[in-house]
Amino acid sequence: MSHKPEMKMDTRTALRQATIVADKQALTIKITHAAGQATADDSPVLHAAIGLVEQIRAASEEIELGRRLPPGITAAMKDAGVFGMAMPRAWGGSELDPLTQFRVIEALAMADGSVGWCAMIGCDGGYLTAFLDQDVARALYPDLLVPTAAAATTTGQAVRVPGGYRVSGRFPFVSGCHHCEWLWLGCIVLENGVARVDGNGVPETRQCLMRVSECEILDTWHTTGLRGTGSNDVVVRDKFVEEGRTFSFQEPRLIKRPGPVPVHSEGLGTGARHRPPRDRHGDRERGGQTGPALHRW
Questions:
Q1: Which of 64, 75, 130, 136 could form a disulfide with 244 if both were Cys (CB 3.0 to 4.6 A apart)?
Q2: What pLDDT was estimated at residue 102?
Q3: Buried/exposed 45-55: b ≥16 CB within 10 Å, e otherwise
Q4: What is the CATH number of the domain that holds 226?
């Protein structure tokens, strides 16, 4: 008798495993595109990104020495529509499907890993605006092609005040902060100097959108891998952020519009694998990757 429940549990587990395997098989997608190439039917953004490869490779030494992307490269990426590729079609944006975004990042990472990384981060404006009131979000991005940097991990503090929050803190690994217009920064909400918590003791969090001009960039990015991403720390000192430029991942109704989801980071890895071995990490044969982890939060 004591073994029967265990046998039933094993049977249920086996059925669940079989179902998962069947689902995975049903969802298998055959990838037919060649890395770093585009067909006549592909997005103009992908064609334009591929067209930047030689310019990016020619700037590789400048990228390494400067520890950030040069203005000429970021301007070319902006003009190509790379940073705006996730912006909604309803606003006049490209709203590329996730696979095409993947291919854009892949093509750029084949030329330089740091460029691919900054492309992946810089298009975040197309995602975070889905979490804001749509009239407010559209007003923040009159130019849909500007890049956005992000440090969504909640290392900052936000104090609730009338109309919004006062934000302070130090935010690490803000890739592309030098060439971005907006910063997406994560905070813990404070009340009377301590974190506000819910009934389960979970701290309340708030994501805040701020202009780079409101922040101080610290020269902290001295590394080997992804050296050209300019992933410096950013400091904010008691700056007001209006309520409409904030959101929380704890909100029950977070998404305010339909659109693509941020699943494109793998394009960086596949692009890097197609590069010559000595440049595979964007580190000019100086060792392994010591910068931000190669995944999304």
A1: 136
A2: 93
A3: bbbbbbebbee
A4: 2.40.110.10
> Is 25 inside a domain boundary?
no
Instruction: Tell which wins on pLDDT, 23 or 98.
Output: 98
Instruction: Count up the domains in the chain and report the number.
Output: 2
Q: Which tokens go with 77?
A: 């990426």
Looking at the fold, whether 125 and 196 belong to one and the same domain comes out as no
Alpha-helical (H) ranges within 81-133 are: 98-111, 113-122, 125-128
**Would residue 186 count as lying in a domain?**
yes
Structural domain that includes position 163 = 147-247
Q: Quick: pLDDT tens for 48-67.
A: 999 999 999 999 999 999 99
**288 neighbors 227 (Cβ within 8 angstroms):** no
The structure tokens listed for 296 are 């999304």
pLDDT 10s digits, 210-249 = 999 999 999 999 998 899 999 999 999 999 999 999 999 9
Average pLDDT over residues 155-162: 97
Structure tokens at 260: 């693509």
Q: Which residues contact 292 (CB under 8 A, 6 or more apart)?
A: 117, 173, 175, 226, 229, 231
Please give the average per-residue pLDDT across 272-290, as a whole number. Answer: 44
Closest to 79 (Cα-Cα) out of 210, 213, 179: 179
pLDDT over 60 at 32, yes or no: yes
Whether residue 105 lies inside any domain: the answer is yes
121 and 184 together in one domain: no
Let me know whether 267 and 243 are in one domain: no
